[in-house]
Amino acid sequence: MHYTRKGDGGKTRIRNCSREVTKDSPTTMVLGDIDELNSVMGLCRAKMRSGGYDDTHDMVREVQEVLFTAQAQIAGADKRVKRGHLERLEFLIEQIEREVRLPQSFIVPGASELSALCDVARTVARRAERSFVKLCIVQKPGFCEGDLPAYLNRLSSFLYVLARSAAYREGKKEEAPQYDA
């Protein structure tokens, strides 16, 4: 059986947390946003695998693992996103940036299926970061210390350059918005 009926009343118990929280609590919201981000990144990774992008596929898998550590940290486990995770993510961003010239304007998403998926993941990463900041302000002052906030911030940059790289590798021209529609 894959259900417990324990959450039917709008509350849930977070692993490693002795108390129940509402399903709309700041902690639950950020954990859900990161879970959604990890799932969307899995979709990106599956598309990369089928397209032969083994290098970026491996990068995304690596980041997905850190997202599990981030969730554990937020839930209260003795796990931490560390400086080495942040430095590795910055290295991956720089590696991709060497491959592709980044645009100087906003981009209309959808030059390719993979670039669009990476842009969707980028927007989910931004939401997860906003949820995390709300958690820090509302519920857990001091929680924004350490390397997790910076890691969550860099994630959207990573996904942005991945999207641009996907379009570039597929020979697709990305376009700036016209603003006159």
Describe the structure.
The structure is a single chain. The longest helix has 26 residues, at 26-51. The protein has helices spanning 26-51, 54-75, 83-99, 113-138, 148-169; strands spanning 11-13, 20-22. The protein starts with 10 loop residues before the first strand and ends in a 12-residue tail after the last helix. Helix content is 62%, strand content 3%. Strand 1 and strand 2 (20-22) form a beta hairpin. It is mainly alpha-helical. The chain has a two-stranded antiparallel sheet with strand order 1-2. The chain is globular, with a radius of gyration of 18 Å. Helix 1 (26-51) packs antiparallel against helix 2 and helix 1 packs antiparallel against helix 4. It has one domain (25-169): Up-down Bundle (Hypothetical Protein Ta1238, Chain: A). It is built from five helices and two strands.
Structural descriptors:
181 residues; Hypothetical Protein Ta1238, Chain: A; two-stranded antiparallel ribbon; 2 strands
Briefly say what this structure is:
The protein is mostly helical and 181 residues long.
Structural class: mainly alpha
User: CATH top level?
Assistant: Mainly Alpha
Major sheet: 2 strands, antiparallel
SSE order, one letter for each helix or strand: EEHHHHH
What is the topological layout?
Layout lengths: L10 E3 L6 E3 L3 H26 L2 H22 L7 H17 L13 H26 L9 H22 L12
Antiparallel strand pairs: 1-2
